[in-house]
Amino acid sequence: MTASAFRTDIVQERRLRTAIPGPKSVAMHQRRQVAVAAGVASTLPVYTADAGGGVIVDIDGNSLIDLGSGIAVTTVGNAAPRVVEAVRNAVEHFTHTCFMVTPYEDYVAVAEKLNQLTPGRHAKRTALFNSGSEAVENAVKIARVATKRTAVVAFDHAYHGRTNLTMALTAKAMPYKKGFGPFAGEVYRMPMSYPFRDVEGMTGKDAAARAISMIEKQIGADDVAAVLIEPVQGEGGFIVPADGFLPALSEWCTANGVVFIADEIQSGFCRTGSWFACDHEGVVPDLVTTAKGIAGGLPLAAVTGRAEIMDAVHPGGLGGTYGGNPIACAAALASIETMEELDLNAAARRIEAQIMPRMKALAAATGRIGEVRGRGGMIALEFTVAGSLEPDAAAASAVAKACHAQGVVILTCGTYGNVIRLLPPLVIGEDLLSEGLDVLEAAVRAL
Ligand SMILES: Cc1ncc(COP(=O)(O)O)c(C=O)c1O
Fold first, then answer.
1. Which parts of 319-410 are beta strand (E)?
2. Per-residue pLDDT tens digits for 376-416
3. Phi/psi-derived region of residue 411, left when phi > 0, alpha when psi is between -120 and 50, beta in every other case
4. Handedness of CA 294, 300, 306, 307 (dihedral sign)
5. CA distances from 83 to 54, 131, 329 (A)
6. Is the pLDDT of residue 4 over 80?
7. Is the backbone peptide bond immediately before 175 cis, with ω within 30 degrees of 0?
8. Which atom of ligand 1 lies nearest, measured to the CA of 230?
9. Is the confidence at residue 1, as pLDDT, over 70?
10. How far is the CA of 160 from the centre of ligand 1 (A)?
11. Strands 408-409, 63-66: parallel, antiparallel or unpaired by DSSP?
């Protein structure tokens, strides 16, 4: 363990040398447009040359403040030294054997670590995959085999991926589903707890009772293999369900032999100020899906859960050529070590303490933000037409564009496209984050 946790060779500053995007990025974008499929879009077409800590440096020499972490991935910072060193070591020994052919230790070590860190002290097993979507697909496969049932419950505003089954599980048509059907069957969508938009006074328990009643009437508990939910919804708008919603769903699942799957792909690995978002309410899911923040930017995903459910699948029933690639596993072990050493859960809570009061004051002063919500380093601003719940996607988009022009990488999300989401790398410095928030604040005030 020789590398330091931070990159010290990349200046942590916002630096604008050209307009954003600069001339080299514009030229690269033109080249891209004749080579790359139009369906693959980019939020901010500045082309990356380097990145680390809380900045992304583009090919024009601009240094941008990163408040997106490549969509919640570079939690430990980009090219985190310990991750780079682990990858370098691993790649010098072997790049691939396929765990299903001749296995290796780091896969086992990642499984052990996930079994230890995920909620609950029961016996667990883990299987590794390449992407979040693949993890969700496999969690559903496992739940179906274990229960010998087929129906899967997902929620309004859910996002679980872009493969065929996960498109069916994802709620939003545009851009994720439109034209790509037919979708997988036996997927049922239930209302989410969305405190900002639910009727006044609806508790988490009420919202769970509403969903459970619909599950029982529309599917029947005996036919439900799994209830799948993001404990804090990601793409749907960083929706934090009311207290009591997740525990009530989880208890109903246990009482009815239904597998409760927490999709922690966006919310996991310190993002919300605890290892997993389920930890905030002491919810212990049967299966947990993880990806994104797990490996410092290398592609890795996992399903972790109760040994008896995971082991219900016949040998050879799970896997894939690259699942648990040795380089990605080495990166995951180094990332998790970095999270532990730097206490990135505490860092996420500090980030929340820095962002929340400022953004709440901004919401009160401008009237353009209906709600500021979220946990840890996963904070959302939901833009609404002043004095109403009417989503204001144009405002969110204008604010994001203004931030981009000023060298701050910021993402939008939400079913209505009206949410700005803040997902800084959890190693971002306080001053840099503060400067990013200055830019954001000015953009909101200029609406
Ligand atoms: C909660 C959640 N589940 C699943 C996925 C899909 O992961 P991937 O893009 O790695 O397939 C995402 C990606 O944004 C996600 O946020």
1. 369-375, 378-383, 408-409
2. 999 999 999 999 999 999 999 999 999 999 999 999 999 99
3. beta
4. negative
5. 16, 19, 10
6. no
7. yes
8. 1
9. no
10. 5
11. parallel
pLDDT tens digits, 69-105: 999 999 999 999 999 999 999 999 999 999 999 999 9
Helices (runs of H) and strands (runs of E) counted in the chain: 13, 15
Question: Which residue is closest in CA terms to ligand 1's atom 13?
Answer: 161
- CA distances (Å), origin 301, targets 38, 129, 183, 308, 322: 27, 5, 23, 21, 11
- Ligand 1 pocket test: pick from 265, 276, 278 the residue with the most ligand atoms within 8 Å of its Cβ: 265
Mean pLDDT, rounded, for 25-34? 98
Mutate to test the pocket of ligand 1, among 155, 176, 266 (most ligand atoms within 8 A of CB): 266
Is the distance from the beta carbon of residue 298 to the nearest atom of ligand 1 less than 6 Å? no
pLDDT at 268: 98
136 pocket-lining for ligand 1 (C-beta < 6 Å): yes
Mean pLDDT in the chain?
Answer: 97
Q: How far apart are CA 330 and CA 307, in angstroms?
A: 24
Q: What percent of the chain has pLDDT over 90?
A: 98
Residue with tokens 């969700």: 136
Q: Which atom of ligand 1 is nearest to the CA of 134?
A: 11
pLDDT in tens, 249-283: 999 999 999 999 999 999 999 999 999 999 999 99
What DSSP string runs through 330-342? HHHHHHHHHHHHH
- The DSSP bridge pattern shows strands 419-422 and 411-413 to be antiparallel
Measure the CA–CA gap between 56 and 48, rounded to whole angstroms: 7
Position 438 scores a pLDDT of 98
Which residue is it, tokens 């939003």? 172
Is residue 38 classed exposed, middle or buried when 0-12, 13-18 and 19+ CB atoms within 10 A define those classes? exposed
159 Cα to the center of ligand 1, angstroms = 7
Q: Which of 73, 157, 159, 167 to mutate to test the pocket of ligand 1 (most atoms within 8 A of CB)?
A: 159
Nearest to 146 by CA among 316, 291, 289, 305: 305
Q: Which atom of ligand 1 is nearest to the CA of 266?
A: 16
